[in-house]
Amino acid sequence: MRVAFFLFLFVLVAQSSFAQRPMPKKIGDWYYYVDSQNKIIDKLGQWDTAGYFLSDFAAVWKDGQEIYLDKSGNSYPAVYNVKDLKPHITAINLKAKKLEKIPDEVFENEQLRVLILQKNSITEIPSDIGKLLNLEYLDLETNLLKNLPTEIGLLKNLYFLDLENNFLTNLPETITQLKNLKILNLYGNDLDKQSVRLLYFLDLDLLFY
What we know:
Elements: H1 2-19, E1 23-27, E2 30-34, E3 49-50, E4 57-62, E5 65-70, E6 75-79, E7 91-93, H2 104-107, E8 114-116, E9 137-139, E10 160-162, E11 183-185, H3 193-198, E12 206-208
Parallel strand pairs: 6-7, 7-8, 8-9, 9-10, 10-11, 11-12
Antiparallel strand pairs: 1-2, 3-4, 4-5, 5-6
């Protein structure tokens, strides 16, 4: 029943997402994004090169810097390796890096707003996650997590949290402090009843469970 409900939600979200997905278009020397009526979406800016919105972000480039662009027009200069982290970088994608732990360097960069760690072998989130107070987007899908630290509740700006396909059986009560959280994916975990009750205290737009 739960699987069927998840699939139904996934289909609805996917159909809506693709129908409204902005498309890149080159006009003159610049790339813009246009809507289904072929009108330029001003808030998405102009870029040297622009990719498709295949997920929550599109990869765009300006002056040699790769940037993650979301559909609200927010832009996040991005890197794929911790050695490339600099003060102006606000997104890091460490997907499928065979990580068993989150690199310490991540927590030294408190300016980060997007942290993608999906498809690794991470077994725990250290309490230092609470240092990333600017974090808005945290993707830990397909790892080996068994619990979350209480410090997760310190991430007051977090609006997206993906924990799909882990080994979570409970959630800390501090998760109810995430007042800006709008999208939460817990599919593929086996949460106890107390943790499920905590979800009622969140003001979510989308919950996958």
